[in-house]
């Protein structure tokens, strides 16, 4: 598989680093595969095939078949099915869409308590200042500690 991967890189004119970036894998991992140190895992093969859907998985894994899948052309739609004179007018579309609309929406009344509930202050624990740390652009710092009386 190592040789087929190298052949794929040559045909696609990709460097190993570029391929690793494209498929979202570590460059070192691809380097280890190409050097023969590691074998490609399922995740690597899956990422490669997802990013290059034309690549033939059977060729990549077993070496059988061609490098790229045979292109299958989709049948073109018959032009006569899309005649412009068959298109309904915009007014017809608007009218037909609104036939089921009755315009009835439920009305909700606000009760006096729903909006004017009493706002309660949440008691907070008293906190004391412990220190202030000033860090300067030259990466020096100064620590300031409060005096016992007022700060």
Write out key terms for the chains shown.
single chain; 151 residues; 434 Repressor (Amino-terminal Domain); two-stranded antiparallel sheet; 7 helices; 2 strands
Please state the structural category: mainly alpha
- Termini separation: 71 Å
Low-confidence stretches: 80-84
- The sequence of SSEs as H and E is HHHHHHHEE
* DSSP summary, beta strand count: 2
Round the mean pLDDT to the nearest integer and report it. 77
How many helices in DSSP terms?
7
- Strand content is 5-15%
The CATH homologous superfamily name of the domain at 2-62 equals lambda repressor-like DNA-binding domains
What portion of residues is helical?
25-40%
Query: What is the CA-based Rg, rounded?
Result: 35 Å
Assigned CATH class of the domain at 2-62: Mainly Alpha
Tell me the major beta sheet.
2 strands, antiparallel
Characterize the overall form: flat
CATH topology of the domain at 2-62: 434 Repressor (Amino-terminal Domain)
Query: What is the CATH-assigned architecture of the domain at 2-62?
Result: Orthogonal Bundle
Q: Please list the strands of the largest sheet in the order they lie side by side.
A: 1-2
**Oligomeric state of the chains present here:** single chain
